[in-house]
Design goal:
The complex is a heterodimer of chains A (362) and B (277). Chain A has helices at 19-25, 44-47, 49-79, 91-117, 135-152, 158-170, 172-180, 245-255, and strands at 85-86, 89-90, 201-203, 220-225, 231-232, 238-239, 257-261, 281-285, 297-299, 304-306, 313-315, 321-324, 336-338, 344-346. Chain A has 362 residues and is of the alpha+beta class. The termini of chain B are far apart. Classes of the chains: A alpha+beta (362), B mainly alpha (277).
């Protein structure tokens, strides 16, 4: 406490009843002498009335300009059309931003200029208060707490105390019951996609089914399951897509795939994956196994797929194993084949969950 | 000669001389004019011209018959050109990527070395090596008559197939080992179409059988719409996303705030200097 109070300073009184304590410790010795405040140097506006009037006009000028800018904002809002452009910029956003920004800036500059040039300019010292209360205050507080504890019988009447603690603990149960209704547990939806045996692989956006002959060597196709798109039935009627809205987005986020074609001799699959391709055409999940970015940056010269988010690199010639980057697992591969009409189809769902790892997956 | 000299003042003499001069000019022109493309009669000449150009400036890497060559280490020096098609030649030579000035990670677009006619000749020669995509006609990549909905769908195709490498605004991006996807801004629609069909360098192929010509036109139209759009959000900082935007807001934005704070807390001008000590 003593080091907070500069000895011999002009404002050393702290007024918190600690002076008696101070006296008990004895006079403090500062390691270096207190230099005190430097001599006050007046500003030009303090000594020259002309400068003062000039500063006054400047501050008022900034505030008036801010007012004009705020008005100009309103005028621009109603007069500048959305389609008008200036220097290749959208005129409306430009004028609204400039006028509102200038108005705010000028208010700030005016306030700052006012404080620096015209408001009172003396050096003040405000001493820190001691952080601890006085001994008397602390003793009184302790005494009050002990008296209260004794009078309430909190320590003596154990039945009352324990039943109250039990009642408070039981309040957690209604909260659990309410929170449970926030939604069903995810179950196994993370482990499955809409791919099934026989689901056609179609070009994303357009929804056109693909024949193996359509895919050239070195080609990349961003594809989705056919069930996301309307199809034409046997009688020529349009069958609507099986999924729509939020459900479509949820399923699309898991089912997106990339289809590539390589020279068969460039593909070195493990035994279990050997029959998953079709004449050099391979199909992999488009969802990076690191944090789930869509990954379709395929270099057909190296057969590498690179994730644009964190540069995880997968070698599609070797079951999409990780070559580089933070991803821990290879991209899941979709086993593919051809249906009776000659279109590419899935032969099975993915054999492992797509996308980033999660706890239960390990 | 007396017959001519006596009639040289004849009123029709001027006209006759003029007619003779025109006939001679026509004969000279048809004898010396360069072989025009697209004329069936001159295809053989065009292919022969292309073969000559190929042997001079392409065969070092691609082999005397376009079969490709290997370097001493057995690595590919120049790929085989059998079956790449005329479209690949038109793209590579027309954008100045080929002939390669020096071996490197990636051929960059530069001022084309060959005239359009010579590019056509080279393309005609390479097309004889094996079947491949031909140079698209103007109405294959022209974007006239596309509705706003079709252009918007072109944006969907673009975001699904192209943005992974070429960036959401088509400004290009980095690839592993010093390679890169070039910017698509200001690129001739014909070259964009040809790149999709032929898959130059690291780029995969997007064949017409899967990504239909109409869908390719939609993508090109979407790119043109992007280019012609005014910058409604202010300066785009190269449309490179969080990198330039973050750099700008941290250096320029925070930097200006720090400087302003230093300036505000500064003592400023005083009428009389403080006298210390």
């Amino acid at each position: 406490m003593s080091e907070m109070t500069p000895a011999g300073g002009p404002h050393s009184a702290n007024g918190h009843g600690s002076s008696s304590q101070h006296d008990a410790v004895g006079p403090t010795v500062e390691p270096i002498p207190n230099p005190g405040l430097p001599e006050h140097a007046p500003r030009p506006t303090d000594v020259d009335p002309a400068m003062e009037r000039r500063a006054e006009r400047q501050v008022a000028g900034m505030f008036i300009a801010a007012t004009v800018m705020a008005l100009a904002f309103c005028v621009c809002y109603f007069t500048v059309g959305f389609d008008s452009t200036m220097f290749g910029y959208g005129m409306q956003n430009l004028t609204l931003g400039v006028t509102l920004g200038l108005s705010l800036l000028l208010i700030g500059l005016g306030a700052n200029h006012w404080a620096r040039k015209l408001m009172a300019d003396q050096e003040l010292i405000e001493h820190r208060h001691p952080l601890a209360s006085s001994t008397e205050d602390r003793d009184a507080a302790l005494l009050a707490f002990r008296t209260g504890a004794a009078e309430s019988g909190f320590g003596r009447r154990t039945l009352v105390r324990n039943s109250m603690l039990g009642a408070l603990a039981m309040l957690g149960l209604p909260a659990v019951v309410l929170l449970r209704d926030l939604g069903p547990l995810p179950g196994n939806v993370l482990a499955h996609t809409v791919w099934r045996k026989g689901v056609r692989i179609v070009n994303d956006v357009a929804g056109t089914p693909i024949r193996p002959g359509d895919i050239e060597l070195g080609q990349l196709v961003n594809a989705e399951p056919a069930s996301f798109f309307p199809s034409v039935g046997a009688n020529g009627q349009t069958i609507p897509a099986q999924y729509e809205g939020i459900q479509l987005n949820d399923e699309k986020a898991k089912a997106a795939v990339i289809v590539v074609r390589m020279q068969p001799e460039d593909i070195h699959p493990s035994k279990s994956h050997a029959s998953w391709g079709y004449e050099g055409i391979l199909c992999f999940s488009k969802i990076c196994t690191h944090v789930g970015c869509p990954i379709s940056l395929w270099e057909h010269t190296t057969h590498h797929v690179l994730c644009p988010c964190h540069q995880s690199t997968f070698d599609l010639g070797q079951d999409a194993k990780v070559l580089f980057g933070p991803a821990a697992r290879a991209l899941p591969q979709l086993p593919i084949g051809v249906d009776s009409e000659g279109f590419l189809i899935a032969m099975h769902d993915f054999y492992e969950p797509v996308g980033p790892s999660y706890w239960e997956r390990g | 000669m007396k017959f001519l000299s006596t009639r040289r003042r004849h009123p029709l003499a001027g006209l006759i001389v003029l007619g003779l001069a025109l006939v001679m000019m026509g004969a000279f022109y048809s004898a010396f004019r360069p072989a025009a493309a697209g004329q069936s009669g001159s295809d053989t000449a065009l292919i022969a011209q292309g073969r000559k150009l190929f042997v001079v400036s392409c065969s070092t890497c691609h082999g005397l018959n376009g079969e490709g060559t290997l370097d001493k280490g057995g690595n590919q020096n120049g790929p085989s050109l059998v079956g790449v098609g005329a479209a690949a030649v038109d793209f590579q030579v027309g954008t100045g990527r080929m002939p390669l000035a020096a071996p490197g990670t990636q051929a960059a677009a530069r001022h084309p070395v060959y005239s359009p006619q010579e590019v056509r000749a080279l393309a005609a020669y390479i097309a004889t090596l094996g079947p491949g995509p031909s140079i698209p006609a103007a109405n294959d990549y022209g974007t006239a008559g596309l509705s706003a909905e079709e252009i918007a769908q072109g944006g969907e195709f673009f975001r699904t197939n192209c943005t992974a490498c070429h960036n959401y605004a088509g400004k290009g991006g980095a690839l592993p080992s010093g390679r890169y996807a070039p910017s698509l801004t200001g690129v001739d629609p014909r070259y964009i179409y040809e790149a999709m069909v032929t898959g130059p360098q690291s780029m995969p192929i997007f064949s017409d059988a899967v990504l239909k010509p109409q869908e390719k036109r939609q993508i090109i139209a979407y790119l043109q719409t992007l280019e012609s759009q005014p910058a409604y959000g202010g300066s785009q900082l190269g449309s490179l996303g969080p990198v330039t935007e973050g750099l700008w807001s941290w250096l320029a934005g925070i930097g200006v705030l720090v400087l302003a704070t230093v300036w505000i807390s500064n003592n400023g001008a005083r009428a009389r200097k403080k006298s210390h000590e």
